[in-house]
């Protein structure tokens, strides 16, 4: 693709010019600007940040701008849970009862499958379905086990991550997005949609008031900081890190986002997020030589199709894949 050829040329040029310091952190650097020019045509406003694991070079565009995280904030919830596991305050095999009144709409693998009382899941299985299926019932159950949204944010501050806040459950976020009279439980949503069927059609519509609300926002650089803290063992033990990243490698959502333009079989461990005009994807991508880089891509204010938003994220991921890989080979 033309953009990918441009990025590869920039990578070679940067490597030749700067030696080991190619791609130094700088908002608006040529490679980031080249990606942004293509991606914003597909998905409104975009921000991204990426860094090779163990490297010093950061590529970012709008890296300090806040974006609604949508379900990518579940990485922070998972981090808080694993911290409690490491402290001995929770165990992965601990069983948790899921009652019918806990069932949420949106990403709803549990509520779509289990319609009768009598469901129990381990913390490990709640983590699995929160990440791989982005299930909202599992997410809100885990927020409770983490000590609430404030406790998740407090854990981020403990890690030195400041431009990242978790304020609400997914039920509260979706409830406010739809204008429901409370958290988006199956019961509340069913009654609301009966009264106003048009509510059920707005999930993919841009909502600028929702995006302007500072709650549950992060910058791309802050999300990148969290991803690096997880991988380095700063945020959790090595065993917990391996458990979480292994789950992220099984994510089923967002096949057209970070993965969309990468070579077939490229290992990707990630978490997606979608609501209204927001489409995001964050995680880790492995290069052909075994090196990896962490990446966070956020979009907002998009009136384009979901396919175009996915393509924008895919363009960013593939271009940075080429940049890190080709730039290293050119040195």
UniProtKB/TrEMBL annotation:
Supply one GO BP term. Answer: response to antibiotic
Which Pfam families does the protein's record reference? Beta-lactamase2 (PF13354)
Q: Does the keyword Hydrolase apply?
A: yes
* First and last residue of the signal peptide: 1-23
| The EC number(s) this enzyme carries | 3.5.2.6
Query: Which keywords label this protein?
Result: Hydrolase, Signal
The molecular function terms of the Gene Ontology recorded here are: beta-lactamase activity
Which PANTHER family does its entry note?
BETA-LACTAMASE (PTHR35333), BETA-LACTAMASE-TYPE TRANSPEPTIDASE FOLD CONTAINING PROTEIN (PTHR35333:SF3)
Family stated for the protein in its record: Belongs to the class-A beta-lactamase family.
Q: What is this protein called?
A: beta-lactamase
Which species is this UniProt entry from?
Roseovarius gaetbuli
Organism lineage reads as: Bacteria, Pseudomonadati, Pseudomonadota, Alphaproteobacteria, Rhodobacterales
């Amino acid at each position: 693709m033309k953009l990918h050829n441009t990025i590869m040329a920039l990578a070679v040029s940067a490597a030749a010019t700067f030696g080991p310091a190619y791609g130094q952190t700088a908002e608006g650097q040529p490679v980031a600007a080249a990606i942004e020019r293509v991606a914003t045509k597909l998905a409104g406003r975009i921000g991204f940040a990426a860094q090779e694991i163990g490297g010093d070079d950061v590529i970012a565009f709008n890296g300090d701008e806040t974006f609604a995280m949508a379900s990518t904030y579940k990485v922070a919830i998972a981090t808080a849970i694993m911290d409690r596991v490491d402290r001995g305050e929770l165990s992965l095999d601990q069983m948790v009862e899921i009652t019918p009144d806990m069932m949420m709409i949106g990403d709803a693998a549990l509520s779509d499958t289990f319609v009768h009382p009598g469901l129990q899941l381990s913390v490990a299985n709640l983590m699995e379905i929160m990440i791989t299926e982005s299930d909202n019932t599992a997410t809100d159950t885990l927020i409770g086990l983490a000590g609430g949204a404030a406790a998740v944010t407090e854990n981020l501050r403990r890690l030195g991550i400041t431009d990242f806040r978790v304020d609400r459950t997914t039920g509260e976020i979706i409830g406010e997005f739809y204008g429901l009279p409370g958290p988006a439980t199956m019961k509340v949503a069913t009654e609301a949609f009966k009264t106003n069927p048009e509510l059920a059609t707005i999930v993919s519509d841009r909502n600028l008031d929702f995006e302007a609300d500072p709650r549950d926002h992060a910058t791309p650089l802050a999300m990148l900081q969290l991803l690096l803290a997880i991988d380095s063992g700063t945020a959790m033990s090595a065993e917990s890190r391996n458990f979480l990243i292994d789950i992220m490698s099984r994510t089923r959502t967002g096949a057209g986002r970070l993965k969309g333009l990468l070579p077939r079989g490229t290992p990707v461990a990630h978490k997606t997020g979608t609501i209204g005009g927001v489409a995001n994807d964050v995680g880790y991508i492995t290069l052909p030589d075994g090196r990896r880089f962490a990446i966070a891509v956020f979009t907002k204010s998009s009136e384009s199709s979901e396919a175009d938003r996915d393509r924008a994220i895919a363009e960013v991921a593939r271009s940075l894949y080429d940049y890190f890989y080709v730039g290293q080979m050119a040195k």
